[in-house]
Amino acid sequence: MSATISQTVGKITTHVLQRMRDSNEKIAMLTAYDYSMAKLLDAAKIDVILVGDSAANVMAGYKTTLPITLDEMIYHASSVVRAVEKALVVVDMPFGTYQGNSKEALHSAIRIMKESGADAIKLEGGVEIAESIDRILSAGIPVMGHLGLMPQSINKFGTYCVRATDKEESEKLLADAKLLQEHGCFALVLEKIPAELAQQVTDSLTIPTIGIGAGPHVNGQVLVFHDMMGITQQFSPRFLRRYHNLGEEIIGAVGHYINDVKAGDFPNEKEQY
Ligand code: KIV
Question: What pLDDT sits at residue 1?
């Protein structure tokens, strides 16, 4: 079997992602928020690491992604960047740092790029944030879009259910996707939308689409690392495939350690000076 594009290049760039899309090579993306996990994902040769604002949920325990701050995202992003040699590192702009004020959006994006050393940023929304996207792109910062279920708008929609199931919302999503491409986004995340709509969006665009709960007819897939590894145990939407039950393994290993300590079995003769 001949080598894939991602196997033959050194660092993954936005241009490499476009080449992968153009030659039908799927893009694999996962979240990471800290140095040690990012190092493992990069060693496994993941294409893209997303420093998602899902850090608000899985790292900080908030119910929504809204509370995480720009400073906190920069902390997570710079930890990830220090670990990564190959993957493209994309950082979510947190809620309140880009909506409604394109100058503030540019300022926030510049802080992320300057202080973390990341490769690109991601924003949620369509036409409503077009001005912010233009300004950020004008500073040479690559932008990934995000449509469908947009967790930063949870208070507007009220649920995390599948989005764009009716004609009005699916037409808006398709129009927004085209607009994001026209404005210069290098890729687009499609979250929790019908597979048929995701296919229609993918067929209408030339930039890569990356799905989460959007079916197979997209150019790549993204999952939250803690969900796919079974570290978060309560969250199990239909789209989630668990590749490990790390949560149970950790609980088991910690239980074993506790027993060893209590029984005076740890440390043994070889484990002392
Ligand atoms: O914050 C995040 O992890 C995300 C993914 C779910 C795409 O935006």
Answer: 73
The active-site residue out of 128, 171, 191, 269 is 191
Bridge partner list, 209: 188
Which one, of 149, 168, 169, lies nearest residue 159 by Cα? 149
pLDDT for 2: 85
| pLDDT band, residue 239 (cuts 50/70/90) | very high
| Separation of CA 156 and ligand 1 centre (Å) | 18
Q: Where are the domains of the chain?
A: 5-242, 245-273
Domain 5-242 CATH superfamily: Phosphoenolpyruvate-binding domains (3.20.20.60)
Measured in Å, residue 269 CA sits from the centre of ligand 1 at 47
Residue whose CB lies within 8 A of the most ligand 1 atoms, among 212, 218, 223, 228, for a mutation test: 212
- Give Cβ neighbours of residue 97 (< 8 Å, ≥ 6 apart): 70, 104, 105, 108
Looking at the chain, the whole-number percentage of residues with pLDDT higher than 90 is 96
- pTM for the predicted model, two decimal places: 0.97
Q: Which residue matches tokens 């999952």?
A: 223
Taking the centre of ligand 1 as the mean of its atom positions, its distance from the CA of residue 18, in whole angstroms, is 20
Q: Could you tell which of 153, 222, 227 is best to mutate to test the pocket of ligand 1, judged by most ligand atoms within 8 Å of the CB?
A: 222
Torsions phi, psi for 145 (to 5 deg) = -90, 170
